[in-house]
Specification:
The chain has about 425 residues and is α/β, with parallel strands linked by helices. It is about 35% helix and about 20% strand. Bound molecules: pyridoxal-5'-phosphate.
């Protein structure tokens, strides 16, 4: 906080397309999608109009005991597009809350299914990130964010991430299967980020992992909970990451890009089997007691419907794949620069890890804040990106024109050369 206070970070007052504008009128290319949620740029006429039209009807009405039209329509839109087998939608108001919903649903499901079992353990991957609430940090595994709160968290089983350096896919799956089999009767669910662990510093999974994890969990009767909060809505070139390995999870969590990056909203989707376990007489005690005040907010749902329409009308998925090619070309150059230890890339997500000596894996001394200097240098040059520790993360909006992505990458190249020389 002391360093941040001295930094005089820009205060954003307006936006224009893919640019943010600060109170002094300086324009910045939004190179991290306003923390990974923006899909179509800012001030998109179609989304603005959808929110304005909804404002003329009703801004908020609760989903506790009532319905509201946009939340029902959005649920229908989502169910037409998500992997098959998911049939029910529960809303919350941010990613972490959507994950908490998933955990509580999984926990309660096992107690209410036809042969009830008190399963009390969740499994997650090493270097996982699922949010900042107490439940979600319990399933996180990034020391910087989580270690301080060890005593506050509930225990979880940690499975090796397939992105662990030096671990082959087969070794990872063998360990995973062993750990899951040994605890199968106790595990309420396995939660994971499909294809890319974003907050871990863009850790990319080898292809085939997701599909094989699905097979293992299915064989052992364990729920698979896919957290697509960061990777969904075109970020990896398909609407949902699970599609790329033809996987249908038991529970799917969506947020961030759900509203195009306009308003906070999360959706937790489940199978009919899970939903059915919550049915019964009102006095049977099967109610799912979880309700946020702004659950299913009509303005957010209207924005989400408009965003989904735009993803299709403007071929945002095709554009996302074009962005992947542009970033691939720049990544090849970045890999040759001194102090660049690794460039990890998939779709529109890219992480550039810098070290003092990549040959020995020696980091820069923390007081030099080199990767933060990269963030600041990019900012001076009109590009907003953000580092997580020693990793500079770029994440252009899936609809950003490739020419702007090129401009973003050129600025990052110049910053890498200036700060790491
Ligand atoms: C994979 C993943 N899950 C959950 C979250 C938490 O979402 P929110 O910040 O909306 O609570 C994030 C946020 O970065 C995320 O990347």
């Amino acid at each position: 906080m002391s360093a941040y206070a001295d930094e005089h970070a820009p205060v954003i007052a307006a936006a224009d397309g893919f640019f943010l504008i600060d109170t002094a009128g300086k324009k910045y290319l939004d190179g991290h999608s306003s923390l990974w949620c923006n899909i179509h740029g800012h001030r998109v006429p179609e989304i603005d109009a959808a929110i304005r039209q909804q404002l003329d009807r009703v801004s908020h009405s609760t989903l506790l005991g009532l319905g509201n039209t946009p939340s029902i329509e959005l649920a229908e839109d989502l169910l037409q597009r998500v992997p098959s087998g998911l049939t029910r939608v529960f809303y919350a108001d941010c990613g972490a809350a959507g994950v908490e919903v998933a955990l509580k649903i999984a926990w309660q499901y096992h107690r209410q299914k036809p042969q009830p079992e008190p399963r009390e353990l969740f499994a997650c991957l090493t270097s996982a990130y699922h949010g900042d609430t107490v439940g979600t940090i319990s399933l996180g595994d990034i020391d910087r964010f989580h270690s301080l709160f060890g005593g506050l968290m509930f225990p979880a089983l940690r499975l090796p991430s397939p992105a662990t350096p030096g671990l082959s896919l087969d070794e990872c799956l063998t360990d995973t299967e062993r750990l899951l089999s040994a605890n199968a009767g106790r595990i309420a669910g396995v939660i994971m980020e499909p294809l890319v662990q974003a907050a871990a510093g863009i850790r990319v999974h080898p292809s085939g992992y997701l599909k094989r994890l699905r097979e293992i969990t299915q064989r052992l009767g364990i729920l698979l909970i896919a957290d697509e909060i960061a990777v969904g809505f075109g970020r990896l070139g398909t609407l949902f990451a699970c599609e790329q390995e033809a996987v249908s999870p038991d529970i799917l969590i969506l947020s961030k890009g759900l509203t195009g990056g306009y308003l906070p909203l999360a959706a937790t989707l489940t199978t009919e089997d899970i939903y059915t376990a919550f049915l019964g007489d009102p006095w049977a005690g099967k109610t799912f007691y979880h309700g946020h005040t702004y659950t299913g907010n009509p303005l957010a749902c209207a924005a989400a419907r408009a965003s989904l329409r735009l993803i299709e009308d403007r071929d945002v998925l095709g554009n996302s794949r074009r962005i992947e090619t542009v970033l691939q070309e720049h990544a090849a150059t970045w890999r040759t620069l001194p102090h660049v230890a690794e460039v990890r890339h998939r779709g529109t997500m890219i992480g550039i890890e810098v070290q003092r000596d990549p040959a020995t894996g020696t980091p820069f001394p923390p007081e030099q804040r080199r990767s933060h200097q990269l963030t600041l240098t990019c900012r001076e040059r009109g590009v907003i990106v953000r580092n997580i520790g020693d990793v500079l993360v770029l994440m252009p909006a899936p609809a950003m024109p490739p020419s702007l992505v090129h401009q973003l990458a050129e600025t990052v190249s110049a910053a890498l050369r200036a700060v790491l020389r």
